[in-house]
Amino acid sequence: AFKISKSSIKRTIKKPLFIFYPIIIIFCIASLNITLSVLAILPLIYLSLSLSFNKIIILCTVTGIALNYIYINRLIGVHDKIEKDYLFELSYLFQVNTSVIIITVLTASFFINKNRKNIKRIELISNHDALTGMLNRRSLNQHMMNTINSMRDGENKMMSLLVLDIDHFKKVNDTYGHAVGDKVIREFSAALKQHTRPQDLLCRWGGEEFLIIIQGLSENDCLDIAERIRSIIEGSPLAISNGHTVRCTTSIGVSFFHLERIEDFHEAFKEADKLLYIAKEQGRNRVNSSPDVNSITKPIA
Among the residues of 165-300, which ranges form H helices? Predict the structure, then answer.
């Protein structure tokens, strides 16, 4: 059995509603049941949250025509039993009530669609680090949860976790100022994006610490990536004002884990963070991995 995420549930609900809504209207017309027909408006309220304004206009138009058709037919059937003035009043009230409901749906849909870009922008800002554009800590945890929820029962995913830290970053800030420090972080993150795959998860964990999660590669391949990143950072001085350059290095801790529950990720982070701390104690500018994997290290000069 599958573990279903909230987003997949929403997609499952939305598609049948949009596809079958015209069928609901046709059924209501065929039944000539006023109560059932008015209830047909209710799915419009949900659809207005997700569909484009143009689609909602079409659905509201079809719904309005259908409801009035149903009501007119019902009035024709009973007009001999109801006084003419009262018949007109009933018809007027029904049209007003129907119009108010549909106008409300249209208004809600208009404002939702008008602000959809702003909503997406807010989501993007809340899920990504403003300086680097990478995932932030909260968003990475959510990605891990989504990966777990999408797995089949009994399935586990082998992953590699790289924890990277810019060496002596405080000294850069103290010497050149925070503007240069921000530029170093941006350039560092750009190098990580350039030398990883699109499917790899990159995260600014906080300050000058970054995470990379790699799936589908062997342990040695992941260590090769870590060493390549270390070498590139070491050999790429950053140009700043007045012809000066800043040279940075990075220390990297690498752990490997099977993802079955969110605690597996947290434990892998603790291990990689510990390996990073050891790399710093050993002189920085090196890659350390789990003891049972051949570590790639740069000899201390």
Answer: 169-176, 178-194, 219-234, 262-281
Fill in the DSSP letter of residue 235.
T
Does residue 198 contact residue 232 with C-beta atoms inside 8 Å? no
Report the distance separating Cα 5 and Cα 174, nearest Å. 46
Mapped onto helix, strand or coil, the DSSP state of residue 20 is helix
Which pLDDT tens digits describe the chain residue by residue (301 residues)?
A: 334 444 444 444 445 555 566 666 656 655 555 555 566 666 776 677 677 777 777 777 777 777 777 666 666 666 666 666 666 666 666 666 667 767 777 777 777 777 777 767 777 778 889 899 999 998 999 889 888 888 766 666 789 999 999 999 999 999 888 888 998 999 899 999 999 999 999 999 989 999 999 998 999 999 999 999 999 999 988 777 667 788 899 999 999 999 888 899 999 999 999 999 999 999 999 999 976 554 444 433 3
Dihedral (CA of 228, 255, 182, 123) sign: positive
Using alpha carbons, list the distances in angstroms from residue 264 to 37, 156, 193, 271, 276.
52, 11, 25, 11, 18
Structure-token match 């007027």, residue found: 92
* Phi and psi, residue 78, nearest 5°: -120, 10
Q: Does the pTM exceed 0.70?
A: no
The one catalytic residue among 83, 89, 187, 208:
208
DSSP secondary structure letter of residue 300: P
Helix axes 116-127, 137-149, angle to 10 degrees: 100
- CA pair distance 153, 170, nearest whole angstrom: 46
Q: Other C-beta atoms within 10 Å of 162: how many?
A: 26
CB-side neighbour CA atoms (13 Å) of 256: 19
Catalytic site includes residue 208: yes
Task: Using the structure block, give the residue that is written with the tokens 């990478």.
Answer: 134
